[in-house]
Amino acid sequence: MVAAMDISIRKAERSKLQDLNLENLPFGKFFSDHMLEADYENGEWKNIEIKPYQPLLLSPSLAALHYGQAIFEGIKAYKDKNGEAFIFRPYDNFKRFNISAERMAMPAVPEELFMDGMLQLVGLDRNWIPTQQDHSMYIRPFMFSSDEMIGVRPSENYKFMIILSPSGPYYSAPMRIYVEEKYVRAVTGGVGYAKAAGNYGAAMYATAEAKKKGYDQVLWTDPFEHKYVQECGTMNVFFIIGNTAITPSLEPGTILPGVTRLSAITLLQEMGFTVEEKNISIDDLIDAYKAGIFYEAFGTGTAATISFIKELRYKDFVMQFDVDHWRTAPALKQWLTDIRTGHKEDKYNWMQKV
Ligand code: COI
Q1: In angstroms, how far is the first alpha carbon of the chain from the final one?
Q2: Confidence at 304, pLDDT banded by 50, 70, 90
Q3: For residue 172, what are the CA distances in angstroms to 134, 221, 224, 291?
Q4: Which residue has its alpha carbon closest to ligand 1 atom 3?
Q5: Beta partners for 86?
Q6: Ligand 1: which of 27, 234, 256, 305 to mutate, most ligand atoms within 8 Å of CB?
Q7: Cα(95) to centroid of ligand 1, in Å?
Q8: Whole-number percent of the chain with pLDDT over 90
């Protein structure tokens, strides 16, 4: 249990929910009535407040804007079939948040602030949780350095915030993926395992190039040979080869340890798959494809949940998948949805009641 925290609450005078239809929502474009804000000053967290969602007033010299000491998380809240609000595995995201904070030389956010703050905020804006299929309320905790100083060193002041976005699906259709051989996302010793804002900014150029060629996302590969698979866009990636589900190993420190990745591993094992977390090369994938045993490929992530890959292009070699006849990824996606909406038993206690 999380101890209750002293969080001051200032409610919005009028709910913006009256102006929004919670159906057919885009991802991440609308925000609920309230947000949480807290300041780290002189070594402690203070000014912890839930207040109406509003712009921030920032100095042009704000350290985060110059040197990118900024991290975030993505978590989702759902309503079950009885209309009760639940959050999916928030504690796992809390732990990952502080791993990211440490790597970026930022202070840890206390469990009470992160967890209790999130529960109170989601509780207050629970009416914003959409219930349409593939919809949820995306919870975005984030922290950034807030020194007003352009010397290069870890900041002394930070802001921690949580905002809420009722959202529809991130990718609505199966994806075409370009295997990236020029640009890299992460190297051992770098920040690939952290949810650092800069990882996403640094990925945008390669993604835009792939989009120009007609692809939805890139499949990131290792920085030395461009052969070993890392992640797919902003997602972890899985391959079903024969009776085995393979996902890249976390060991090199280049991969974000996804909470949906972890959940997929558990459910795939329950489905009877051998799950291997290992280094897998694009040549291994091509060999399996040629042998007719590479059945499915999909991405996993909080925003995307399970996203099917219908085409993988490596140089001139194209691997195509008949997504309509897949059995595993659709079943996995449904199973996760059913746990989140209370239609299947939550036997691992993944759902945290609000
Ligand atoms: C997530 O899956 O939560 C992500 O971080 C992906 C993206 C929205 C940044």
Answers
A1: 12
A2: confident
A3: 9, 25, 33, 30
A4: 74
A5: 78, 353
A6: 234
A7: 16
A8: 95
Pair of tokens at residue 283: 């040549």
Distance in angstroms (rounded) separating the CA atoms of residues 13 and 33? 9
What's the chain's Rg over C-alpha atoms?
21
From CA 102, how far away is CA 223, in angstroms rounded? 24
Q: What CA–CA distance (Å, rounded) separates 124 from 132?
A: 20
Sole residue written with tokens 């993926």: 177
Give pLDDT tens digits for 73-131: 999 999 998 999 999 999 999 999 999 999 999 999 999 999 999 999 999 999 999 99
Cα 140 to averaged position of ligand 1 atoms, centre (Å): 9
With H, G, I as helix, E, B as strand and everything else as coil, classify residue 122.
Answer: helix
**Contacts (Cβ under 8 Å, ≥6 apart) of 314:** 179, 282, 285, 286
Domains and CATH numbers, the chain: 8-169 (3.30.470.10), 175-340 (3.20.10.10)
Q: How far apart are CA 53 and CA 33, in angstroms?
A: 5
141 lines ligand 1 (CB under 6 A): no
Do residues 90 and 115 make contact, with C-beta atoms less than 8 angstroms apart? yes
Q: At 1, is the pLDDT very low, low, confident or very high (cuts 50, 70, 90)?
A: very low
pLDDT category, 329, cuts 50, 70, 90?
very high
C-alpha distances out from residue 56 to 119, 146, 153, Å: 23, 12, 23
Instruction: Transcribe 70-138 into DSSP letters.
Output: EEE--EEEEE-TTS-EEEESHHHHHHHHHHHHHHTT-PPPPHIIIIIHHHHHHHHTGGG---STT-EEE
CA 217 to chain centre: 16
- Strands 244-247, 136-145: parallel, antiparallel or unpaired by DSSP? unpaired
Residue 200 CA to ligand 1 center (angstroms) comes to 9
Pair 351, 86: CB distance under 8 Å:
yes
